[in-house]
Amino acid sequence: MSKIDISDAGSAIGVFDSGVGGLTVVKEIFKVLPNEKVIYFGDTGRYPYGTRSPERVRSLALENSKMLLDFDVKLIIVACNTASSVALDYLVDALPIPVVGVVKPGAYAAARTTRNGKIGIIGTTATIESKSYERELTSLNPQIECVERACPLFVAIAEEGWTVGPIARMISETYLADLRLSGIDTLILGCTHYPLLRSVISETVGQNVRLVDSAEATVKEVQRLLENSDALRPVDKAPVHRFIVSDAEERFRVVGERFLERPIDMVQRMIIGESL
Amino acid sequence: MSKIDISDAGSAIGVFDSGVGGLTVVKEIFKVLPNEKVIYFGDTGRYPYGTRSPERVRSLALENSKMLLDFDVKLIIVACNTASSVALDYLVDALPIPVVGVVKPGAYAAARTTRNGKIGIIGTTATIESKSYERELTSLNPQIECVERACPLFVAIAEEGWTVGPIARMISETYLADLRLSGIDTLILGCTHYPLLRSVISETVGQNVRLVDSAEATVKEVQRLLENSDALRPVDKAPVHRFIVSDAEERFRVVGERFLERPIDMVQRMIIGESL
């Protein structure tokens, strides 16, 4: 992986996702690295990635990264489990700056959390089918047993704002009731939308199962990288962040404020690839 | 609108949609016009259309149509409410063969169905915001009153196969409970996914509300057109259909079989526009 040039310490961290979900990672940056500038790109004109083919996701991810490079970012976070699962190595090879995905840090955190070696993984269909978390976990420790479950409707209800209440509970029960009986002691929330559903998921799988949020683990990894490269942003004035999307900026603002739990002043729309 | 040349009667009907939803129209063709050949194109590499700008949808719709023209289809059905709402007139002008959308036939059927002039319309956010059904209905009869409601989660639960049961019922109740009190006697299912949810929707709004399925109305219009042009396919041997997508053919096959309620032998993937 490329290193960050110290002279770039003042530059922003670039973050992209297929849509609004990656804002859970941004929220974590604001908490842990409050002095860093963030440029966020949500590819709302071409979402969702979760049901697309790996080749297609790779080409979208590369276009998004190049767009962020134009803003001179010092590091890119792929805040999308699908893109991290199928495109990360490809981006690491293709780009001149460090690229951090959400899968490796999430898997690492889960491997350190589990006591009994049984880890559950939930995510979109594409993430689960890619087996990316399982691969990372068993490379960390071949003894680890994985139980995986795709929960495609979780994204839709999180975006609709139905994160608590009987519909969320019933959908969670439908997907996850049998995980309660599987003996897992740790569950990876393998999709950036899922932290919004944390309480209902925890209720379903049982309070004794520890939930691992990839966003937290990813931002810790970024912090470590910046510290090791001496590339933390110098404290001079308060950082100014930018939010850019490829379509439907007003919807992004409204849903995004729910994810960030703070106001978003402005969302810009930019043309990328095929989307207008 | 162009007429069909009688010599083309043996050719296929071309159908396109942004994804899998348009298969409800194909299912209706199989029922009403079982002798017709169908070439279906699902633009899964570039869906969903609902969040895109009208200009972009027009250019996608034209590319899809040209692709179908290469197969010498005799008529094109735009089996997508968004594309029908914003691109139909444009396609009618641009193409040398007849083009039929789902909005006009649906609105026409609803206007003939209603007794009290109060019509409900449900669809995706984009379709409801375009007000295309309302425009068609009031041009047919300025006295008609419309009650519109976007139901974004319906697409997700239909694709997940959760078309009956407590989750579908509760979501339907959340979106539509107040329609029961609105005095409508007719409800347009303004999204090609919704016919799969017909029974739960009917339960919510009440048995006295007549549901109008655009797919049915659209295929009736196609039947009328083919009969008037003497262009019904001659009965010689059983028709062979083709299903083509721009991405993720296996997912299309699996979800598509739920929509068609019959097996799909093969789904081909083709490159269109900039999508892989």
Topology:
The structure is a homodimer of 276-residue chains.
Chain A: E1 13-17, H1 23-32, E2 38-42, H2 54-69, E3 75-78, H3 81-94, E4 99-101, H4 103-113, E5 118-123, H5 125-130, H6 132-140, E6 145-150, H7 153-160, H8 166-176, E7 186-189, H9 198-205, E8 210-213, H10 214-228, E9 242-245, H11 249-260, E10 268-269
Parallel strand pairs in A: 1-2, 1-3, 2-9, 3-4, 5-6, 5-7, 7-8, 9-10
Helix pairs in contact in A: 1-10, 2-3, 4-6, 4-10, 8-9
In short:
Two copies of one chain form a homodimer. With 276 residues, the first copy, chain A, is α/β, with parallel strands linked by helices.
Report how far the terminal alpha carbons of chain A are from each other: 33 Å
CATH class of the largest domain in chain A: Alpha Beta
Task: Give the number of helices of chain A.
Answer: 11
Strand residue percentage of chain A: 15-25%
Fraction of residues in helix of chain A: 40-55%
Shape field of chain A: globular
Quickly give the structural class of chain A. alpha/beta
Topology of chain A as a string of helices (H) and strands (E): EHEHEHEHEHHEHHEHEHEHE
Largest interface: A-B, 29 and 27 residues
Q: How much is the average pLDDT of chain A?
A: 93
Multimeric status of the protein: homodimer
CATH architecture of the largest domain in chain A: 3-Layer(aba) Sandwich
